Amino acid sequence: KEDLQIEAQKILDENAQEGGFTIPSKGLYPFQWKWDSGFIAIGLAHYDMKRAQQEISSLLDAQWENGFIPHIVFHNESDSYFPGPDFHQSFLHPLASKKYKTTGLTQPPVLGFVLEKMLEISKNASSVMSFIKTHIDKVYENHRYFYTNRDIHNEGLVYIYHNWESGTDNSPVWDEIWETVDAPQYTFQRKDTTHVDASQRPSDKEYNLYVHVIEIAKKYQYDDQKIAALSPFLVQDPLFNAMLIRSNEALMNLYKRIGGNQEKIDYLTHHQEKSKARFNEKLFDIDLNAYIYFDLRNNKPIRHITSSSFTPLYAGIPSKDRAEKLIQVLLDRFGGEDQYLCASFDPTSELYNPKKYWRGPIWMNLNWLLYQGLKRYEYEALAERVKNESIELITSSGFKEYFDARKAIQEASGRGYGGDNFSWSAALFIDLLH
Ligand code: DGY
Asked: What is the predicted ipTM?
């Protein structure tokens, strides 16, 4: 395991870029991604706190004037990725970053709890605290952005307008939405399938839809109100909202530690209570006993269970009773003896595909979130299982992007798929070992 820790650090070092950020994986993802950077900073914090800080500050440097943080920052040029720096045209939005080309999409709001984790890991709390003091307001402004612009019913739940914002890109959860969308055929050249076997990536038809939704947002200059009114994809996602709630909590803890800042604490407290209550009301399905999704555009719940369904545990959202029911579902559907935890999509569903990106494989960041959630609710043995299985998968298959949950399968290439030397697999492996 020590050797593997050294290897994990080597991957993070090799993926480091000038400008202080880390790419997720060479070739496949050659820029800075928002939630990747958050998880990467947690790993870096264990051996190079200065670099962990640079990871976060280089991302925040691309924050828009309205508080928005984009999902990709194009610090550098690279033609190995589609849709790249010139496709997104974030400059169409009047408040976009003037310094960098970015996307006009975001990703789950992990930065609040990442700052708190960095402090927890730190052996020199005062130097990390001074970093936090100079950066926390940017994260706070990001949360204000969400509540101001993306909570259309003023109910404490924010929307995403694109599947790439969910982080769980091609989940079967979105299939029903795509069926409602009538998109023209766009001309573009995918690059991802030149790096990774197409059977492990989204389909061309899906990519055409992904492009279509961005073209609509571009047509309206990435204006949030117009997007809310017109985007064919408009969803309240349990992972996204759970991350916002967990990060709200972290910001409140950190502001209390800093002192003062009462107005910000009050603002966060108000939204926190409202968000948690509504989350439990609207996103919990009492027949499935699990957290699900709400399709705002078509005004109906999307009743699938995914690894995102368990992330509310980390945010302290369910009551103890509800947590117990949720964990029973986890064990029944995802946790049989023949499976590693935790598949990204319900293995009992006919839509489950154990090799295809977010349609089934295990992802280390979702396993990490599950591990934290189980610990929070004191399911110690199950938390240990998730941790040990995560370590085992990496030990047997390397720092791949995603992993096959089926124990019976033994491919010549191991059970890992997608990109190689994947940064957050390495970073979270380091954290799990500690
Ligand atoms: C991709 O290109 O697959 C990314 O996940 C989009 O952010």
From this structure: 0.91
